[in-house]
């Protein structure tokens, strides 16, 4: 591949831009299935400078990243649209939050089934198998597709 063109990966990520000797070379953009994109200057397949834009329009700026830092924990949609009334929590940056299938977790790029250890995208197409480290991280940190009763629990008598 040589010159300007388009290439679509099996994951449906699409590259549009300049190529040289079958590699990204020059200006080009990666478009991800979730709606985000990475615009970059490439040299022999390696991005030497670039800008990532999330699907909601938030641009990542490594030098001046002000979103979701130690001082301001609001979601980007809360910054743009304001906070919800008191007592109504916003659990994700997506409004309304995505419905998670029963027994699964929302990993940010799809749904994870801890029984099969498979992550599928939001259209239920296979993404990857979770290794032990990713499984542990998902179960510990990601939003669940079911409710859990929390709070005081009386210890069982033994």
From TrEMBL:
Primary location group: other
Location in or out of the cell: Cell projection, Cilium, Flagellum
Repeat found in the keyword field: yes
Keywords for this protein: Cell projection, Cilium, Flagellum, Repeat
GO cellular component: motile cilium
InterPro entries noted in UniProt: MORN, Morn5
Cross-referenced Pfam families: MORN
Highest taxon, organism lineage: Eukaryota
This protein's name: MORN repeat-containing protein 5
Organism the protein comes from: Holothuria leucospilota
């Amino acid at each position: 591949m040589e010159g300007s063109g388009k290439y679509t990966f099996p994951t449906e990520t699409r590259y549009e831009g300049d190529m040289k000797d079958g590699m990204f070379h020059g200006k080009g953009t990666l478009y991800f299935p979730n709606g985000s994109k990475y615009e970059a200057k490439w040299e022999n397949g390696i991005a030497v400078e670039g800008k990532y834009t999330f699907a909601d329009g938030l641009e990542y700026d490594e030098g001046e990243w002000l979103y979701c830092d130690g001082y301001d924990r609001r979601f980007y949609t809360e910054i743009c649209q304001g906070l919800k009334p008191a007592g109504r929590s916003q659990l994700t940056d997506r409004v309304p939050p995505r419905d998670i299938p029963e027994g699964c977790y929302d990993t940010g790029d799809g749904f994870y089934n801890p029984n099969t250890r498979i992550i599928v995208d939001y259209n239920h197409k296979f993404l990857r198998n979770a290794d032990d480290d990713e499984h542990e991280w998902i179960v510990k940190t990601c939003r669940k597709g079911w409710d859990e009763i929390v709070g005081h629990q009386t210890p069982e008598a033994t």
